[in-house]
Amino acid sequence: MRALRWHGKKDIRCDNHVPDPGIEDGRDAIIRVSSCAICGSDLHLYDGFMPGMMHGDILGHEFMGEVVEVGKDNRKLKVGDRVVVPFTIVCGECDQCRRGNYSVCERTNRNKEVADKVFGHSTAGLYGYTHLTGGYAGGQAEFVRVPYADVGPVVIPDGLTDEQVLFLGDILPTGWQAAAQCEIEPTDTVAVWGAGPVGQFAVRSAILMGAEQVICIDNVPERLSMARAGGAITINFDEESVVHRLHELTRGKGPEKCIDAVGLEAHAARSIDSMYDRAKQALMLETDRPHVLREMIYVCRPAGILSIPGVYGGLIDKIPFGAAMNKGLTFRMGQTHVNRWTDDLLNRIQEGQIDPSFVITHTVSLEEGPDMYKVFRDKHDGCVKVVLKP
Ligand SMILES: NC(=O)c1ccc[n+]([C@@H]2O[C@H](COP(=O)([O-])OP(=O)(O)OC[C@H]3O[C@@H](n4cnc5c(N)ncnc54)[C@H](O)[C@@H]3O)[C@@H](O)[C@H]2O)c1
Ligand SMILES: [Zn+2]
Ligand SMILES: [Zn+2]
């Protein structure tokens, strides 16, 4: 089959003659991928910031398609079903899965010992996302093996297009969970850093959850106008001071709720702290660039909530923890517990309340995937979200 594989930093190729996956366990299924997407999290692999990738790993954790083979113990799926597959692999039976904490499933990470050492505990297995999370082959491919396929996959009813439901597997529930973690009240201002796909869904979720005002921060004009179309007030951090403007918009009090939809590759050309991060990162003295986290801690109203869907991989430096502690801030974060939200979100899509397809700016073949990683990373050509058709 053909698949997008990681061959090193900034070296992703569409390889032919990659061996087809097969059933390895009775609960497995094999999916023929009809649509898949490139996620902001994939950029951290492309740019070489996440440790644990190996030459030849198949990328991709946002995908859907048709079931073409089912293991003998799988009583949920049948050949021909159309499914969206959540990026977190879940067993459905461990303590954490039973509590709905799917992204920290205790069983699905095949490389548990490594994760235990690095993070203190293992987290769920993820598709196409480093050997720290199980080293599972991803879905930017013609076919993919889905382990524990009697738990995670969401069966899609007839009448919905791929574009309407594909993002149920990751970025839609991620934006939704980011807003849900804010426990939004009708008087709240919610500030969202990052107007990428995750930021876009966080903005629209916060509005659906009834926030008084939603503010979105980025420096990419077309992403900011997409956020405005969703109901946000926007701040371009190249043109004005984020802290100053947020105070202006909140009568000097600061937003009650702050969402980091940027993660470890934050940039902020003119700030001293981000120059410091770049220097330390280059010298391998720091793995991540937490400029947004610092800004959120500084500007968030005391007793507020910081919700962090943005991915961090390792160690961060110069975090004003004194400010966070004395202001009584609450931090909520994590990889998304996708299956916690999918039934509700699928309903909202069917009822026409949400149409996630608005973020798609590019639809291309798998062969064009490697080039599109670069276009998406550099935000060229108005690119917000890329869908690949294998
Ligand atoms: N928690 C999860 O389960 C989960 C799931 C999906 C994605 N993510 C993470 O969410 C983050 C966003 O993903 P995405 O797909 O939207 O990626 P993206 O790279 O398209 O979006 C990031 C946006 O942040 C902006 N940005 C950079 N520096 C900024 C700053 N200082 N202030 C404000 N904005 C800034 C960029 O211009 C860009 O538009 C990534 O870190 C990704 O790994 C997490
Ligand atoms: Zn993702
Ligand atoms: Zn589990």
Overview of this structure, please?
By secondary structure, the chain is an alpha/beta fold. It has 13 helices and 18 strands. It has helices spanning 40-46, 95-98, 112-119, 162-165, 171-180, 197-208, 221-229, 242-249, 272-282, 291-299, 321-326, 338-350, 369-378, and strands spanning 3-6, 12-15, 29-38, 57-58, 62-70, 82-85, 88-89, 125-126, 143-146, 154-155, 189-193, 213-218, 233-236, 257-260, 305-308, 330-333, 362-365, 386-389. Strand 1 and strand 2 (12-15) form a beta hairpin. The radius of gyration is 20 Å and the shape is globular. Bound molecules: nicotinamide-adenine-dinucleotide and zinc ion (2 copies). Nicotinamide-adenine-dinucleotide is lined by residues 39-41, 43-44, 170-171, 174, 193-199, 217-220, 223, 237, 261-263, 266-268, 291-292, 309-311, 335-336.
